Amino acid sequence: MTDLSRYHRQMLLEDIGQVGQQKLAQSHALIVGCGALGTVIADSLARAGVGTLSIVDRDTVEITNLQRQVLFDENDVLKQIPKAQAAKAKLAKINSQIKVNAHVTDFSFKNAQLLIEDVDILLDGLDNFQTRYLLNDLAVANGLPYIYGGAVGTTGMSLAILPHSHARKNKSPQSSVSWPDELSTPCLRCIFPEAPPPGASPTCDTAGVLGAVVSIIASHQVAQAIKLLTGNMDRLDRSLLSIDVWLNQHRTLDVSTARNTSDCPCCVKGEFEFLFGQTGGEATSLCGRNAVQINPQKSESEQPNMDLSSIALNLNKHGTFTVNQYLLHGQFTNEQGKNGIPVELTLFPDGRAIVKGTDEPEFARSIYAKYIGN
Amino acid sequence: MQCQVLLFAQLAQTIGKDRITIELSNGATVNEALNELAQEHKTIAQMRNSIAVAINEQYCNTNTEIKDGDTLALIPPVSGG
Question: Is pTM, for the whole model, over 0.90?
C-alpha cells in the first residue's frame, strides 16, 4: 500500500480523508495540452497524489512559455525539450510515488480513443476550440468527466462536464467516477454550439495572457477534478465560471437548462463529428513545396469573411505581414521551420492558410492555433 | 423597453465597455437583441454563433423572450490556454 504520509494536510480535509486519498492514488487523469493551464493542472494533481497522469502535447518548450508555464525552465528551452517530456521529468522530482506518461504527439481523432485507455477523467489544457470539441466528443461518447478551462488576456473560463448517458457509445464506462443521469450536465457544445470563426477569437500569442488568470482557472479545474475523483459529487461546481482578473469581474452562470433547450449535435443527437474526423479542419502537406495547407472547419452557418487587416495588425507584432485585396502574406521573426528558415504564412479570407517552411501538419496546425486562433 | 447587456471576456475588451444598454420593442427575443447588437458591433456579428447568452445569470436560448428589467449577458468562449 502507498505511504500516504506526505498527503497528511490534504487528508485532514474532512471530505477527503484517507479514503479519498486512496481513491486519488488509484486514479488516472489525462491532461490534454501542456501549456499554461496544463502545467498548473499537472503540477497540482501530481502534488495532490493522483496515481497516474498522462500528458499529451505536441510542442517543445520556448522562452516565451516561461512567464506562465510553471513546470518549465531555461534549460528546457536551451535543449528544446518536448513539453510533455519536460513536465514528466519535473513531476518525477516532485512526486516519485506517482506514474507519469508523456505523449509527445498531436492530439487528434486518430489517437484520441487510444489515449484514454484506463483514464478516469479528462482535463483540458488546450489552446483551441477545434480540439476541445474533439475532447468533448470523446468525453460524451465514453462517459468520462471532462473539465473545460480556457484563459487569454486577463479573462478565463471553467466548466465541469458530466456527460449524459443518452448519446454514450461505450455502454459500460471505465471511469471510477460515476453519476446518475439526473446529475449529468450540459456538454461544451450545448453551451457553445460552434467554435469561434478563425481569426475572430484572441489567442495568447496575439492578445497576450496574464499568468495569474491561468493559475486561477487551472486551479478551479483541479479542484473540480479532485472532488470528482474522491467521490464528492455533491460539491462539484455545476456553473460556468467566468472571470476577468483585471476588470475585477467574477461571475457564475447557471447552465443547468442548456441541454434541455439545445439541439446539441454531440450529447443530444450523438453525432461525434470531431471524434470520427468528419470535421475539425484539415492540415495537408503540399508535396515538394515544404508547405502545409490548413483548411479550417467550415461552419454550417454563414460566416463573414475574415478581417485580414486586423489580423495583420496582430501578426505584425511577430513578423512582417502585408494584406492585399485577396490575401494576407508575410513571415514570422521567431518561428523557424526546417533548417532554421523563417516560417511564412499566407492566409485567405475564407480561413484557408498555407504555412511555408515546414512539411509537418502538426507544426503548421500549431502555428495556425497560436497566431490565427480556431 | 430598455435592456442592460453585460459583456464578457473579449467582447468587453473589443467594445471597450463591460455593459451597454439597448432599446428593444416589447416582447423582443434574445435573437432580436443579438440582431440589434450585431448591427452596431462587428465583433458580436463575427462571434454570434459562438456566444452563450444568459438572462439574469441563467443560460437561455435565442428564442427566449426578454422582459422589461432583464439583464442580458453575452459570454464568448475563451479559447486560449
Answer: no
State pLDDT tens for residues A52-80.
999 999 888 999 999 999 999 999 999 98
Taking the C-alpha atoms of residue B40 and residue B23, their distance in angstroms, rounded to an integer, is 12
CATH tag for A282-371 (out of 3.30.70, 3.30.40, 1.10.1740, 3.30.310): 3.30.310
Taking the CA of residue A12 and the nearest CA in chain B, the distance in Å comes to 32
Q: What is the pLDDT of residue A337?
A: 86
Contact status of A253 with chain B (Cβ, < 8 Å):
yes
User: What residue has cell string 477527503?
Assistant: A16
B50 touches chain A (CB under 8 A): yes
The pLDDT of residue A156 is 96
What's the CATH number where B20 sits? 3.10.20.30
Q: Tell me which chain B residue has its CA closest to the CA of residue A39.
A: B81
Question: Going by C-beta distance under 8 Å and a sequence separation of 6 or more, which residues neighbour residue A114?
Answer: none
Q: Would you call B34 an interface residue with chain A, using a CB distance cutoff of 8 Å?
A: no
Residue A6 C-alpha, separation from nearest chain B C-alpha, in angstroms: 30
3-state SS class at B29: strand
Phi, psi of B72 (to 5 degrees): -95, 145
Name residue A1's amino acid.
Answer: M
HEC string of A301-341 equals: CCCCCCCHHHHHHHHCCCEEEEECCCCEEEEEEEEECHHHC
Burial class of residue B68 (count of CB atoms within 10 Å of its CB; 0-12, 13-18, 19+) = exposed
Q: Which residues of A touch B73 (CB under 8 A)?
A: 251, 253
Q: Do A256 and B59 touch (CB under 8 A)?
A: yes
Tell me how far CA of residue A263 lies from CA of A160, A193, A363, B64, in angstroms. 20, 9, 35, 15
Fold (CATH) for A5-253: Rossmann fold (3.40.50)
Please state, rounded to an integer, the average pLDDT across all residues of chain B.
Answer: 93
For A78-137, how does the pLDDT look when each residue is reduced to its tens digit (9 = 90+)?
998 999 999 999 999 999 999 999 999 889 998 999 999 999 999 999 998 889 999 999
The ipTM (two decimal places) reads: 0.92
Domain range for B40 is: 2-75
Q: Which of A82-96, A256-270, A278-292 has the lowest mean pLDDT?
A: A278-292
B16 touches chain A (CB under 8 A): no
